[in-house]
């Protein structure tokens, strides 16, 4: 019986030592990782600040639209623009 108790005590001591060592290694490694993360966080550049988008362009007056349409008509008459291109550009001018 004394040999059995001695074997159980020895196993318990070894297991306890192994657990303590494992816990200590885990804590040390966690501390290292935390330090590395903190260092990386300190080295990261601050997030970029984006400028607000520019305001939408001011609405062109009716006179400007008429001048653009006249110029567009002249380009069509001169043969520079096809009928389809003329209609597309005219729609763009009138929409904008």
From TrEMBL:
Location of the region described as Disordered in the Swiss-Prot/TrEMBL record: 19-62
UniProt feature, compositional bias: Low complexity: 34-43
Organism domain of life: Bacteria
Pro residues: bias regions: 44-58
Entry protein name: SHOCT domain-containing protein
Organism: Nocardioides cavernae
Lineage: Bacteria, Bacillati, Actinomycetota, Actinomycetes, Propionibacteriales
